[in-house]
Amino acid sequence: MYRAHGRHLISIAFAFYVLLFVIALVLAMVMGDFGQLVGALIAVAGVFWVQGALVTAIEDVRDGRADLTVRETIAHIRPVLNRLSFAALGILIGAIIAVALIVIGFLLFVIPGIVALVAFIIFAVRWSLLVPVIMLERKTVFGSLDRSQELVRGHTLHAFFVLLASLGFVLVVAIIVAIVLAPFDLPRWLDEPIRTVVSGTLVAPFSALALTLMYYRLRAVKEPAPAPEPVPAA
């Protein structure tokens, strides 16, 4: 699917990442350090916006063709924009707290740190379908967390390997982009945003595909379609 619909999915991701880059640049120029902080928070929410739009696009192309334009696809996230933003903020706060607990656990004693790390990974995997559930089932944030956990439960290890493969793809692309851009010796204020735009544009569709197809797969396993009724004999 990435090969077949890559141009369409990459166009959507590129539009979002360029928009986020422009917003962050304007905020940094106008508001200085505080603008950079606000831009960083918007960028976190933007990752969820991108994923939401890509989930919609993937649902659209599952029949083999793209019926929605890029603009129409982006329009589909407007009704749930606040929901996606709230989810991004909640996940960010949760991740910060989790990292703090993990670090404290390792500083106090190794075993509590390991337990906290394992718990963090399990919850991250169980909640990995948050955005697909928000977009495809239109549930609330907390309802989507429960629904994601319900779908992944019993398949946590398989979901973990899917996420691990996605992370591997992200790292490989980031390394390649860094190598390609290294000879240009761009200033830092321009180098990092360009790396983010290029890397994000390439990896966001792959991650969205992995999560969305996993959602459909687990939903089919947990909620199989009813068997067709037998045709009565003549």
Describe, in plain words, how this protein is organized in 3D.
- It is a single chain.
- With 234 residues, the protein is an all-alpha fold.
- The chain has 8 helices and no strands.
- It has helices at 2-61, 70-75, 81-108, 110-126, 130-137, 141-152, 156-181, 188-222.
- Helix 1 crosses helix 5 (130-137).
- The longest helix is centred in the first third of the chain and has 60 residues, at 2-61.
- The radius of gyration is 20 Å and the shape is globular.
- The N and C termini lie far apart (43 Å).
- The relative contact order is 0.12.
- The mean pLDDT is 87.
Which stretches of 5+ consecutive residues score pLDDT under 50?
none
Q: Number of DSSP strands?
A: 0
Q: Provide the succession of SSEs.
A: HHHHHHHH
SS-based structural class? mainly alpha
Give the overall pLDDT as a whole number: 87
How many alpha or pi helices? 8
- Give the overall form: globular
- Provide the helix percentage: over 70%
**CA-atom Rg in angstroms:** 20 Å
Distance between the termini: 43 Å
Strand content: under 5%
Major sheet size, sense and barrel closure: none
List descriptors.
8 helices, 234 residues, single chain
Q: In brief, what are we looking at here?
A:
The chain is mostly helical.
